[in-house]
Amino acid sequence: MTITVTGATGQLGRFVVAALKRQGADVVAAVRDTAKGESLGVPARLADYDRPETLVPAFEGTDRLLFVSGSEAGRRVEQHRAVVEAAVKAGVGHIVYTSITRADTSINPLAPEHRATEELIVASGLPYTFLRNNWYLENYTGNLGTALEHGVILGAAGDGRVAAATREDLAAGAAAVLTGDGHAGRIYETGGDVAFSMADLAATITAQSGTEVAYRDLPEDDYAQALIGFGLPEGFARVLAAADTSIARGSLDVATGDLSRLIGRPTTTLAEAVTAALKQRG
């Protein structure tokens, strides 16, 4: 059985390929840069979402396709349609798509493109599985330096909770679906076992680092302006701020246990992730 992973050189894709290799799976990396892809130690094929002509050859002979969603918000429906159409033409046996938490009902501003992609996949007639991934824990642990330097985490999430999971855990879940049976037609709400608030995050960083860090909640527009001040493009900053506001309204407070059941162990905790990130910082 041949498993093709799109976006294989990305931060999630690399973990998926590594997990599949450990299981002895026959893996193909579908990537925009084949030279970079070959560093994964598996065959690499050119697959650029913006160049549909590359996709059918990349997917040929694929029994199961991990379709990692594109990273360019606002362009994903067009890109994803090309991937789905190519998967049909190439005769892919099963498509596993990395979606977003409660894609069909979420108020998160990033959800509509995922909802549209799920609809495209269902309409294609291909057997499918949706992995509705919650936020990455690395979205928070990756900013520890700034939090420790200033003693504050800014956001607009209020008391909202996030069932975030590490990329490695989410990749393990994807690998389990790709190599296992009985997943066709299933939708998994994949995330951490325990949801946490931004105040919980600040308290955990304080406890693990010994440096006092507090969470400061801002109105959505103020948070967007702060992100712009940090150098983010205005459009992206406003999407992130709106996503935070959706967290305040419960959009990511979805701890189902689906991921821990798929991987056969508890998910990485917030404290474990913060501790690991602090060790990496030295």
UniProtKB/TrEMBL annotation:
Pfam families per the UniProt record, alphabetical: NmrA (PF05368)
Superkingdom of the organism of origin: Bacteria
Domain NmrA-like: 2-242
InterPro entries assigned: NAD(P)-bd_dom_sf (IPR036291), NmrA-like (IPR008030), NmrA-type_oxidoreductase (IPR052718)
Coiled-coil zones: none
Protein's UniProt name: SDR family oxidoreductase
Naturally occurring in which organism (per UniProt): Dactylosporangium aurantiacum
